[in-house]
Write a structure and sequence with these properties.
Length: 195
């Protein structure tokens, strides 16, 4: 591949898409960036990262199209997002509205961060889509209220914090991303403790 300054964005995107397709199909030797000359390590890293991002976006769509359950699909997507961002844990939720129109979150993908038998039972309930957050006085509530990303590198001191349950793993950093469709907030992704 030519130098980065002579590569068109469409050619780079096409290369990344091909890499992602090869990785998703499990092709031998389809390691992202494998076709790039070793002399251009920065471009190879960029293409590899773009292929990972593209895979996070396309793999869930492909799985839903072939009839896999949304729960399994959200779990895989969350696993990929946690790995891609080097986070320790996270969640994917849907934004719904109660009878009076107030927004709340229903969990659809959640990292297993259980720390006791009781918390494991709660986790299993959350995992099945049965867990909802109605109190939005929190960092993830700030995402819902503002419809904008929220980054907190000191969540324990952040005025938007809502706290964590006793025994919960430490929350040292938080990234909340709104999921919008047609201008409407339909969900959010929360990721914790990325470096």
């Amino acid at each position: 591949m030519p130098s980065p300054s002579s590569v068109s964005p469409s050619a780079l995107a096409e290369h990344a898409a091909g890499e992602a397709r090869g990785c998703a199909a499990g092709e031998a030797g389809a390691e992202p960036g494998a076709e790039l000359p070793s002399g251009d390590a920065a471009l190879a890293r960029t293409v590899r990262r773009q292929a990972q991002i593209l895979s996070v976006l396309t793999t869930p769509q492909r799985r839903l199209l072939v009839g896999e359950t949304s729960g399994d699909t959200f779990a895989l997507m969350l696993e990929q997002l946690v790995a891609l961002t080097a986070s320790e844990y996270g969640f994917i939720s849907e934004v719904l509205h109660d009878a009076v129109g107030e927004p709340f979150l229903r969990m659809h993908g959640l990292s297993d961060i259980s720390w006791s038998d009781e918390s494991r039972k709660v986790f299993e309930g959350m995992r099945s889509g049965g867990f909802e957050f109605h109190n939005l006085d929190s960092l993830f509530g700030a995402v819902v209220r503002t419809r904008a990303p929220v980054i907190s590198n000191q969540p324990g001191l952040d005025p938007r914090r809502g706290g964590v349950p006793s025994g919960h793993p430490p929350l040292r950093a938080f990234l909340g991303l709104p999921l919008l469709h047609g201008g409407q907030l339909i969900g959010m992704i929360g990721l914790a403790n990325a470096p």
